[in-house]
Fold each of these.
Amino acid sequence: MKNELISFETAKLAKEKGFNNAVDWGWYYDSRDSNLTWLDLGSYLNQKDFLYQATTQALLQRYLREVHGVNVWARPVYDQDFGRIIYLIAYLTSEDFIERESFAFYESSEEALEKGLLEELKLI
């Protein structure tokens, strides 16, 4: 599994839901044009409202687990019809021990995890 950056849509929703990795430099999306840019925030302090941190999927996954008690992961499944591995999204909420899965099929674990993170943020 690659250490992928989250999408603009996920970054925007994560910020709305309170995610803040509190770093002064890194990858950010600019909401004015959705472009991904490496920034040193020291020069952008008065313009943070339109910036969304493009953290990694792994860091957002950790935030959801530690702050909201929800585990999100991509589960590989062998598809006999096509003879290949596909991915499902699995969720486990530790508070009430509810497990659920999304049965949509994804080509990669990163794609499945991105969808899972976005959907879980919508539920918060």
Amino acid sequence: MARRLWGKAPPKFGRIGQGCHIEEGSFVRAEEIFIGDYVHIGPGARIAATGGVTIGTGTIMGPRVTIHSSNHRYDGDGLSSLPYDGVTILRRVSIGEHVWIGDNVMICPGVQIGEGAVIAMGSVVTKDVPPLGIVGGNPAALIKMRDRTRYEKLKQAGASYLRRKNNRCMGVRIIREK
């Protein structure tokens, strides 16, 4: 069962998997959110899932991640007011399995983040991220790719971080780099 740490009224989900952690101070809006197993959503996350958000199994999000899946119409023949009109454009956000999203990342409507991707802290993700891609910046750009062989080996072994942590199968080490 998910560990739910929000305030007075819990959000409604399309689906929330087992072993999930949603930290205190996070805000999830809309029933169009589907969360896989062993997902961690850090404190202060803001997820506006009106257009739909899918978060794959084993994904870890740091604090203050913002995800939007809708936007206003500001241009076009049907525009009826300024700076935008009453039309809401829905664009699903999809986050693959075993994705690591750093602190203070913003994900824009319609973005697809591939399996095993890493999103550097402070990034603004405006375009799709390939599987195993490591991106960073504003707007986020591809920095490099993860090692596919190593990734597949860990995935086949079921080495999901939160699952192992929940089952007390691993300790935490701290390494100070120079």
Amino acid sequence: MNIAFCSKGCDSESELDERFGRADFFLIYNRENDSYTPVENRAKEAKGGAGALAVQQLVDNKVSVVIAPEAGPQAIEALKKFNISIYSQKGAKTVQEALELWSQGKLDPIEEPGNKGLHRV
């Protein structure tokens, strides 16, 4: 199973990004081999629809779960279409903290869009 985190950096101690579609990186954790792969978010510079474009990148990387601050309407719709679960990163500051909280079942699923698709660059 691959879990993606919205990240500002390329390792588990990286700070979480406050954006989904315009996050700097997706740090993808592979649970089977306990490894991280940083993926630069190609959608972050998109003129519009960054959330949906970011979801496609997650699909391409076989992500099953994403930990994010929130997601807009297009992103939520795309995540549901591809059966990718999304959880709030809650109060976590780093990727490692968010992974620990998720592993303990302490992160809440995101069911509804949070930012209504507003662009926050």
Amino acid sequence: MKKIFLTVSLCALFAAGAMAQGMKGGIKAGLNLSNITGDVEGTSMRTAFHVGGFLNFSFSDALSLQPELLYNSVGAKMSEFYEEEEVEVEVEGTQVLNYLSIPINLIYSFGNFNVQAGPQVSFLMSAKQKADFMGISLDVDNKEAFKSLDLGLNLGLGASFGKLHASARYFIGLTDVPDAEGDFSAKNSNIQLSLGYTLFGE
């Protein structure tokens, strides 16, 4: 599935370059509201960020394809309870997952507004688990516990006012991110709120 996903994404990008009537590019950044969903308990939304750039290939006034390159920080907050000498102790922590993400979205515009959808491939750059336990703070590198590649889909809405752009997307993870065998399922999900600015092009 990973090979098919990557092949389709690359074919779409090369086709856009060949067929595009115009190209523009710029920078973007914004807020991530992420979580890890599936066979997990005690997780809640983590607030983080993304930053990077984009290219936009126009096929017509309404249709375009937009690949992006983003530094993307996601993960989840976690809370677990343990029995310690007949006393229940809550351990609160955060799983931080930092990716280099490449979303490729097809954008359909109507007036100043648009809808967008497309695949995203992400390469894991770092992973850390942070926790507070009985006054002790822990910060552990656990990159080896996660797969190096994450695949998913983006669905979103956007608006464009001259060189300024805004978008809201929901990322649906398709990959079980823990590097473990068995039927255990845990996938990234992310609400991404972005502002962008066109630096060059039409």
